[in-house]
Amino acid sequence: MSKSDNPKSKNIFEPVLQDRLRCIFSSSTKMKILPVKWRYVVAIVLLLGLGSAGLVFWRAQRALRIATSEVQSQESLPFSVRKLVSLNSSFEWINAPEAFTGGVIFKGDFYLCGASGLFRYDNHGSLVKHYRPGQELPSTPLLRMTTGVLRDARKPELLIVTGTEGVLAFNGEEFRQILPDHPDARSITAILPLGSGQLLIGTRKRGVLVYDGQKLQSFHPTLAALHVIELAGNEGDLWIGTQDQGVVHWQAGRTEVFGEAQGMPDPQVFSIALTNQKTYVGTAVGVAEFEGGRFARVLAPGFFARALYADGAKLFAGGNEGGIVEVNSQPQRMQALLHATARGVTDVRQIFAQGESLYAVTGSALYQKEGQHGGWRRVLAPQDALLADRNVSSLALDSANRLWVGYFDHGLDVLDPKLHGAAHYEDDNIFCINRILPNSANGMIAVATANGLVLFDQLGRKEQVLGRADGLLADHVTDVALYGSGMVLATPAGLTFLDDAGARSLYAFQGLVNNHVYAVATSGREVIAGTLGGISVLDNENVAANYTVATHGLSHNWISAIVRTGNDWIIGTYGGGIVRLRADGHFESFDIATAKFEVYPNAMLATDQHILAGTLGKGLYVYDKSANHWTVMTEGLPSLTVTALAAGNGFIYVGTDNGLVRIPEQNLP
Amino acid sequence: MKRLLTLLAVLFSLASLTWGDAGVLIPRDKAQPDPAILSLEEMEITIRIDNSDARVFVKQIFANHTSGIQEGNYVFALNSHAVVSDFATWDGPVRIPAVILERKRAEEIYNELKQQSIDPGLLQMGERTASEARHTSTFSARIVPIPAYGTKRLEFEYHESIPVESYKSYFGIGLKPEAYHSQTARHLTIHFELRSEHPIRDFKLGSTIYPLKITQQNAHVVSGEFTGENVDLTQDFNVQYELDQAAGDSLHVLAYRNPDSGQTDPTEMSPERSTNEPGFAEVEALLANKNATGTNGTAARPPHNVILLFDNSLSMQWDKLERSYEAMQKVLHSLAANDQFNLVMFNSKVTPFQPNLSGVTPVSLEKATGFVRNSKLRGGTDLQRALEAGLAQCAPDSANNYLVLLTDGSATRGSILSGKLSAWYQEKWKSLPEASRPKLFVFAVGDDANLPLLRMLTRNDGLLENVLSTEPTEFKLNAFIAKMNMNPIGQLGLAITPQSSLDLVYPLQDTSFAGSMASWIGQYKAGQKSVAFDVHGVREGEPFNIRGSADLPEKSLDHDQLPRLWAKARVDALLEKIEHDGEDRASIEEIIRLARKYKFVTPYTSFLAVPRALLRPRVIRPGDPVLRVRTDPSIVSVVALFPFGLTKPLRHLEKEDIWQTRFLAPLEMEDGTHTVRLIMRDHNGAVYRESKTFVIASKPPTLKIILARKQFRPGGAIHLKIQASSSTRTLLAQLEGAPLVSLRWNPDEAASTGDIVVPNELAPGTYRLTVTAEDIAHNIGAQEVQIEVLP
User: Fold this and answer.
1) Interchain CB contact of A549 with B (< 8 Å)
2) pTM here?
């Protein structure tokens, strides 16, 4: 979507000098005075260009009319548009990395968006406002951003793609949410505002949709089945990058698909950039160049072009780890020249121009290109985050009140009790964290990971890593619970008991209901194992009972979390909500909580007053023990996927796949 | 040579998912054959059984029905008696055979090829380690390219030794693709020829859908042919026959000699043509069974003292444990009422079921079964202590002590060197009074079983049987148990006169019994007339001799399997010498030379040609699976592109040399095979793309037991009919008090079927019959029904 705003040759502009402007961006477009004979040449080119553009515009309008008439027969997709109201939630954010995904300049301010929300900076780089998911914004990450004038607003707006909550439109004061009803239509990947005031919306499952303020419908039948990644162009000449079919060129009602057989280096498109005559399509293994709608060649073969920006003869590509490269794409050159202009700039998400300045948004900062031949300078960087990652997978408070935060695939942090500082641990074993288990008896912390069980001493020093070589059934430890003088470990291959007598294991051969154990909990000599295929109750290390959906009251076989409350077990399932297993072996369902939703693995917690369950995309379920009532909390959370829970110091710590928050337990319903 | 190597390669690797699949070609990124992409147009199988050697040659032509060039994975499951002898693909008119290379050289070439076209293996999480995944019982090869709308011809050859048990022989090819449910051959031809020096009788064709048109059948030859169109390969091909008992205690000599080596193999390091090549002779003696009461040798026998040594260490996890358990059950339920038994579980610890031997009762058997079922797996295998405990259990005054060892033989505690451990056992065994020395019966399970060690252990009046993951256990287990009721032939030997006529003579069986074939193979330098052979031994306490004479011809091109058979026996002997005495250069060089000349794999050679590792469906944990990828060392970055739009860089774990990441599988990601694409960059900046598949199986298999009736009498059979979901890999049925029964697909009943015999001693009452289904992800589904046993 990095279409150049200025179709003219780059060399008519003079680079803006930073020391003159003293701001991080400029919309200045100073023009050089050209020699007289060149003025004639330029004028002729412009006339020809205008003529061609007029013809294209007429054909495009005609094609759009035809296309529109075709889709009018189709059913309009239900949607709603509503104003967003800022919430006053009791959740307190714990600072996590921003994870930017896009940037744009709007009404003189600079906006960056990402998983952590929308950041508004003034032109000196000072943060003016942070709009947070769950507070001012819906509880979902922000994926893309552009500006446009929609028919139902008639004023310029910032248009933002969200993870699951449709499109947000921001006029600088307030947000509108354009929210399709159907989840498939909400799985939005790209947007493209059109000059007509319509908004093209690319989706994973519904192809290209068009929104005109009144209706939301399929843009064209031939584009309805695409898994869209990127959109570029306009009403009459549209390029659609797809997940698995290369790039689709829709022009004047005609659809042409360019896959590998037509020369594309890869069928999965990541980015598209347009100039007057050329289209550049970025893939994981190079950039395809199209000229006049026809495939021409592959540029920068092997380069992972996640972001592209093209302007005249210059093409910039940014990738995961290859930095930003400038590709000299002069047509007479057989082999496009490639030189890295910013090797150290990784994880590039977007490259865009404002005036004569070129910017690159990475996951962690904003860079600006210094002059035509200069390098890239970091011009905006958020403050240092306390946490190392946003995707939390496990939480625990140790006996010293330190908060242990395990990440989905980024090691773990140990935060001091006042949450002022953190120590980060990450290595080949401390990588994908599943459960953190403090042992108050000896101060040890056991960390269940996908690469073994890691034991820390009470000072937080890594002491030992246990794996299959040490007698565990598998290296992957999915859960761990204290048992007797040792522990019991859940693995995808069964259960392992671990204590001074050594490691001993059992699985389906010994009677376990299923080998894949996701959750384990203990009470005295009783162990309850939640598996992919039901529940096993063990007494003194032997299977005493198995429960599956064949047992009355158990709604789902796949068990993802278990906690103990009183004499009962509260069972979280991955698809059937939450049920209670009574001491007498009977199951009880709950109002509200026994329903079709997924309890996130190990995301349950029992306190004296509450039972809490984190879910996949459905928020936080809270059970008030005294009122015998479940409440679903969604407001205030940075994401509706709640992945981990811990209690301590009067707070409930809530980990999500998009950050960590805490709330005083007294503020829970 | 270079082209040969760059185009083609072959390797053996694990395919635990491919039970009994013979000759299937699976399109890249598919979990099973897809005839809409690659169909089996022609299959020609040539089977030539020459006495105890079967040579099977399979020619297959697959057609590509797509407009794109296809890749495929060719899979052929082998049983433990089979050894691959050739493989070739055709690139248009050019036949490209596989080669045997010294392992080090093979690895160099393999790595070179991977530089050009990298194909990392994707390792599943949790259940298997990389080293386990290297073990093999299935031949597989990556076939590329298969031209658009074109065909690909493949040739595959293997040799299989055919044992004789109680005069009976069995030969089969697993044509029915068990893991993939169906395969259809558009044209199928089977050429069959059986030749035997010993007279044969009662030849039976086991499969009904391949009716051979018999062209010749007499006491020494059976030949026939089958031709069919659009044949659904729903049954295995198998034949059974019997050697005439009247020919017991007779011997025959087979010989082969071609003095001219012919053109040397172009892959030889120093090719040299010879005109004085040695000859080879095999002596086959059919040992009569003087006490045969029927066909299975179950004559009345004295009471046995049976001590089962059951390995439940971590290395036995999954199939090996299940198979050992099945064997244990079968052994226990084969015991007679006057036998005595004990059970010793071992891993890093040794735990007896009971302090001493005790009588066999239904209650004690049930308790022993429960003892095994409730035991926990532990890391470490102390085989030495287990054997010591077993020897200590032997009744001092009994001549019928049996140690039954159920293990994979991977000793990790105590004495672990094969030579030392076997020497220790021999010393201990010999220190016992001769009469009470136990017979060591070893049932080795798994593709990675330490057979050299177990073979050495059974040299002390014992028997070794091994079963691979691709083989059904039933046939071997029955033979194993039948032999426990018989005494092995003692002091079996072959005398040759003049002695110098044959040298480097090796026995082809570790242990022989009455009713079976004992054979030896040796090498001779020049033709000789009237060489005398004397097979001698002690049978049921009685010495015997089987004598005969034969010419060793100057030139004879019959029985061309003999050079290879001898080379294999010679290599086995050299490997055993290395196990005992350590490696020496001469032995290794000879092993490599023989393996290359006769094309078979040894620890020092590789049957290599496919340049890239194979990837089969890998089962990963549903929900938030971990993806693990092994790449070439030159790779510096790996990015995974998931079908649902996620892009994730992988982290390199230095110690394991594995790339790893984790992802949250979206809810719409249903069970089945999914593709992930990997973008890899090497240190030179070259970029490679690979598509890999993984399997998510979150739902346990479902099953339904269908019983025609629910009341049975002791001794009666319960015919079980099970309808199970398609993901099911194994189905086991158990009735309290009866041994475990494995159920198999029965096309006639369109269900999996099997029979459980109600034990005679089962008291009238209601009993629970449980059927358990397991899928490839080790998900378990089970159903129980109650049956009533009537008086």
Assistant:
1) no
2) 0.75
Checking if the pLDDT of A42 tops 60, the result is no
Higher-scoring residue by pLDDT: B772, A519: A519
Contact B377 A506 (CB under 8 A): yes
Residues in chain B: 791
CA dist A653 and A91 (Å) reads 9
Mutate to test the interface with A, among B118, B381, B780, B783 (most CBs of A within 10 A): B780
Model confidence at B272, pLDDT cuts 50, 70, 90, reads low
Contact (CB<8Å) A474/B126: yes
- Confidence band of B493 (pLDDT split at 50, 70, 90): very high
Helix (H) or strand (E) holding A536, with range, is: strand A534-539
pLDDT digits (tens, 9 = 90+) for B27-45: 766 667 788 888 899 999 9
Q: Sort out which chain A residues have CB atoms less than 8 A from B649's CB and list them.
A: 320-321
The partner residues of A502 in beta bridges, in order of sequence, read A499
Length of chain A: 669
For residue B685, how many other CB atoms are within 10 A of its CB? 10
Q: How many Å apart are CA B302 and CA B484, to the nearest integer?
A: 12
Beta strand B744-746 pairing with B728-735: unpaired
Q: List pLDDT tens digits, range B556-590.
A: 999 999 999 999 999 989 988 887 777 788 888 88
Q: DSSP characters for A54-123?
A: HHHHHHHHHHHHHHHHHHHTSPPPPEEEEE------S-EEE-----EEEEEEETTEEEEEETTEEEEE-T
Question: CB B686 to CB A302 under 8 A?
Answer: yes
Q: What is the 3-state secondary structure (H, E, C) of A182-230?
A: CHHHHCEEEEEECCCCCEEEEECCCCEEEECCCCEEECCHHHCCCCEEE
| Model pLDDT, residue A39 | 55
User: In B6-137, which ranges are E strands?
Assistant: 11-13, 22-27, 38-50, 53-64, 70-77, 82-91, 94-97, 99-102, 121-123
Q: Which residues contact B599 (CB under 8 A, 6 or more apart)?
A: B84, B85, B86, B98, B100, B564, B607
The tokens 């558009």 sit on which residue? B186
Q: Which residue has the higher pLDDT, B434 or A91?
A: A91
Cβ neighbours of A508 in B, within 8 Å: 774, 778, 780
Contact B698 A518 (CB under 8 A): no
In the sheet with A92-94, reading across from the earlier edge strand, the strands are A92-94, A659-664, A651-656, A642-648
pLDDT digits (tens, 9 = 90+) for A375-409: 888 888 777 889 999 999 999 999 999 999 999 99
Closest by CA to B647, choosing from A666, A167, A243, is A243
Other Cβ atoms closer than 10 A to A439: 16
Cis previous bond, B93, omega within 30? no
Tens of pLDDT, residue by residue over A490-507, are: 999 999 999 999 999 999
Average pLDDT of span B219-235: 92
Can you tell me which residue has the tokens 């598209």?
A: A272
CA dihedral B629, B635, B637, B642 (to 10 degrees): -40
Higher-confidence residue: B705 or B87? Answer: B705
**Residue A182, C-beta contacts closer than 8 angstroms, at least 6 positions apart:** A77, A78, A206
B373 to A513: CB separation less than 8 angstroms, yes or no: no
Most confident of A166-175, B504-513, B660-669: A166-175
pLDDT reading at B369 higher than 60: yes
What are the residues whose beta carbons fall under 8 Å from the beta carbon of A200, sequence distance 6 or more? Answer: A191, A192, A193, A194, A208, A209, A210, A219, A231, A238
Look at the alpha carbons of B360, B362, B364, B368 in this order and tell me if their dihedral is positive or negative. positive
The residue written with tokens 């059919």 in the block is B286
Question: Inter-chain contact B685–A302, Cβ cutoff 8 Å?
Answer: yes
Across the beta sheet with B741-742, the strand order is B711-712, B780-789, B765-775, B728-735, B741-742
pLDDT at A61 over 60: no
Taking the Cβ of residue A302 and every Cβ of chain B, the question of whether any pair is shorter than 8 Å is answered with: yes
